Structures are given as structure tokens and as C-alpha cells.
Amino acid sequence: MPIMPSEVLELSQSLALEDAKKIPTxxxxxxxxxxxKNFDKDSNSSTVRQIDVVSAIGDKHPSIDLDWxxxxxxxxxxxxxxxxxxxxxxxxxxxxxxxxxSI
Length: 103
Fold this sequence. Notes:
By secondary structure, this protein is α+β, with helices and mostly antiparallel strands. 45% of the residues lie in helices and 17% in strands. The protein contains four helices and four strands, in the order H-H-E-E-H-H-E-E. It has helices spanning 5-20, 25-37, 50-60, 74-79; strands at 39-40, 45-49, 83-87, 98-102. Helix 2 (25-37) crosses helix 3 (50-60).
């Protein structure tokens, strides 16, 4: 039976959380560290640059090839109560993509 419009959001969230289970724990550890390190108490938010995450993965696990899907962490953090926004810059603006985590 085809999906109803009222069901699509729940199914989409469920599928995103299933994908989040495929992300290694060390990737979440890196995000957690950077969220805490960059947390601003005045704005109740933390900005995490994608380049910092990628660099940390390479530093901690140099023999592992990065799977870019590992950076799709938003659904898991949202399920834990964070508001997460991802800002992806143009392909020629290397290092400019970032996440904003807000309480």
C-alpha cells in the first residue's frame, strides 16, 4: 500500500535513525568533544566546522577511509533533543561547511 502523507515524516525519521546506527561510535565521540569545546553559554549553541570533524577522524584513525555518510549525524542528535542545522557551502569554499547545535 502506498505511503500516506501523514506517515511520511515518521517513516523518514525512522529511516534516518536506522542510518545513524551505521555511524561508528568514534565519530559521535568526536562530534561530542567538538560540541562541548565550542559551546557558547550565551547563545546556548555550538558551531562545529566539518573540516575539524574530518581532521579529527583522520588524526585518530589514519588507516580508516572516511565514509562521508558518517557526517550525517543530525537525525541522531535531533532525537536526543538538539536542534541541529547544517550549512553546506559551495564546492569551491573548502572548509566552510559547519553544523550548529542548539539547546
